[in-house]
Structure formats: structure tokens, C-alpha cells
Design brief:
The chain is built from five helices and four strands; from the N terminus they run αββαααβαβ. The chain is α+β, with helices and mostly antiparallel strands and about 250 residues long.
Length: about 250
């Protein structure tokens, strides 16, 4: 995005290239006309300045959009990746800590039921609770694995057994004193300024005159060669009105 905008700004700052033309005409075989010339249009009509202004505003808008995208990426990365990973880790830890004493309680309940101290139904309830806790722990392990895969896509260097910690997030934009300096709003403002520069550019009617320098030689073969060959140096300038910009 910024690369294309920078290239456009660089192109708008360049001076127009001169045009070189050479021709040879020999229509009837009796005379030969050879001509060469160069023309160049100096940027004195204000169009180049307006093109540069529009391109620079477009580059500034692209840079602000990139800064806003980095800020959105930071927010999304923190919310969608780090928060899911931290939540899945804490849930797995809590369920693992809950399963250990619950398994002990279920084992003691089964032993007491075999001894006839409590009904068998009560022991089976502890067994069902233990089984449900193991199912919940398995689901938490699966969710943690998914969160680790997403985390690895952003930060491949983090070990699989790492605990949730601060991630290498994209840098924050420069401190902004007010709401009008937000990157996304700045990008909109630069786009409006670019459109205004293009509007003024389209209102230009007169184009700069093209300066020309040329040479022409005519050889008439129907008469004496020494007397027929003539050459002259030509100079001139042309001006035009751009009808495409009218209205």
C-alpha cells in the first residue's frame, strides 16, 4: 500500500521527458526530406505542483492507514489470541486442580460403599462427578491446544509449555493529544485533501507551451546536387488548451 503510494509520489515529482523525433520522406524519388527535432514541455503551468501535492497527500493517507491497521492488529492480537490462550490455560489449571481431590473422594466413596458404610448409589455419584471432571479437563486441553496453534501462527518462537505472558505485540502509534489525531481519522483527512488537489488539477485549462528545436534538410535530385541540398535549423513553441479539463 505505502510502496505504491511512494512510487506515485516519486513519479509525480519527476520532470517531463523530452521527446526526440526523426523522419525521412522521399515521396516521388526526386526529392528527399530529412528532419530531426526535440521538444520539451517545461512544467510552468502548475500541473506538476498539483500532481505532487495530490501524490504526497495520498502517501500520507497510506501511511496513516498502515498505522491504523497496526493498531487494529494489536487489539485483535490481544483479544483473539492472547486472551483465548490465557483463558484456556487458567481453565485447564483449575480443572486439573479440581480433578485430583475429586478422584480421591470417589475412591474413598467406593471403598466405604464396599464396606457397607454408605449406599452404593452415593459412591456412583462420586464416580460420575469424577468422570464429568475428566471430560471437562479433556475439553479444556483441546481448547488450550487450539489456542496454542493460533499463538504459534503469530509467535512461532514461544515454547509449547510456556505460560501466558506478554506477547511481542506491534508497536503502538505515537501518543495522540486528541481524537482528531487518530490514525484512521488522519487518513480520512489526507484523502479529502488529496481529492481537493485533484479537483484543482482538473480545473487547469491552459497547458504549458512546448519548446522545440529541430533541423531539416531537403535534397532535390532533379537538379545539381550541390545547389539542391539545403539545411536549416528550426525553433518554435506551441501552446494548447486541454479540452478534457473543461467543465
Amino acid at each position: 500500500m505505502c510502496t505504491c503510494a511512494f512510487a506515485e509520489a516519486l513519479r509525480a515529482s519527476l520532470l517531463p521527458n523530452p521527446e526526440i523525433e526523426a523522419s525521412r520522406e522521399e515521396p516521388d524519388g526526386a526529392a528527399r526530406e530529412t528532419a530531426a527535432g526535440v521538444t520539451w514541455t517545461p512544467p510552468i503551468d502548475g500541473r506538476r505542483a498539483l500532481r505532487r501535492e495530490a501524490a504526497e497527500k495520498g502517501l500520507a493517507a497510506a501511511e496513516s492507514r498502515l498505522e491504523a491497521a497496526r493498531l487494529r492488529l494489536r487489539i485483535d492480537l490481544r483479544a483473539a489470541v492472547y486472551a483465548d490462550w490465557a483463558f484456556a490455560w487458567e481453565r485447564r489449571e483449575l480443572l486439573a486442580a479440581h480433578l485430583a481431590p475429586l478422584g480421591g473422594l470417589a475412591e474413598r466413596a467406593r471403598a466405604r460403599a464396599q464396606a457397607g458404610e454408605i449406599p452404593g448409589l452415593a459412591a456412583r455419584r462420586f464416580t460420575l462427578e469424577e468422570a464429568q471432571a475428566r471430560i471437562d479437563l479433556g475439553r479444556a486441553e483441546a481448547r488450550l491446544a487450539v489456542a496454542r496453534v493460533a499463538l504459534g501462527a503469530w509467535s512461532p518462537g514461544i515454547p509449547q509449555d510456556a505460560r501466558p505472558s506478554a506477547l511481542p505485540l506491534p508497536p503502538l502509534p505515537a501518543a495522540v493529544p486528541d481524537l482528531a489525531s487518530r490514525p484512521d481519522l488522519v487518513a480520512r483527512q489526507r484523502e479529502v485533501e488529496r481529492a481537493e488537489a485533484l479537483r484543482r488539477l482538473s480545473g487547469r485549462i491552459f497547458e504549458a507551451p512546448a519548446l522545440g528545436l529541430g533541423w531539416k534538410r531537403i535534397e532535390d535530385r532533379s537538379v545539381d546536387r550541390a545547389a539542391a541540398e539545403t539545411g536549416e535549423l528550426l525553433t518554435g513553441a506551441t501552446a494548447a488548451i486541454s479540452s478534457a479539463n473543461l467543465g
